[in-house]
């Protein structure tokens, strides 16, 4: 279960960055490409976000997170690069 959470945390962080790249770099220069990529990137990120949140809830007891750590793990899903930090700091070795 922990290995899957680590994978989802990294994939969610990457999808977040790809979504930002699509908005900030591609949109101003190539509107058609932006519109084409928006749905698949957004859908992938949305599914990974939901997976991250649900997996964090499922492994909370396994990882022995206290309330503060659990809240930090959940808030990390909202910030760019934060899921990479969580994967290193809060998830004990699988």
UniProtKB/TrEMBL annotation:
Top-rank taxon: Bacteria
Membrane topology: Multi-pass membrane protein
Residues annotated as domain DUF3817: 3-92
Segments traversing the membrane: 7-25, 37-58
Keywords in alphabetical order: Cell membrane, Membrane, Transmembrane, Transmembrane helix
InterPro entries reported in the protein's UniProt record: DUF3817_TM (IPR023845)
Keyword NAD applies: no
Location in or out of the cell: Cell membrane
Keyword set includes Oxidoreductase: no
Protein name from the UniProt record: DUF3817 domain-containing protein
Lineage per the UniProt record: Bacteria, Pseudomonadati, Bacteroidota, Flavobacteriia, Flavobacteriales
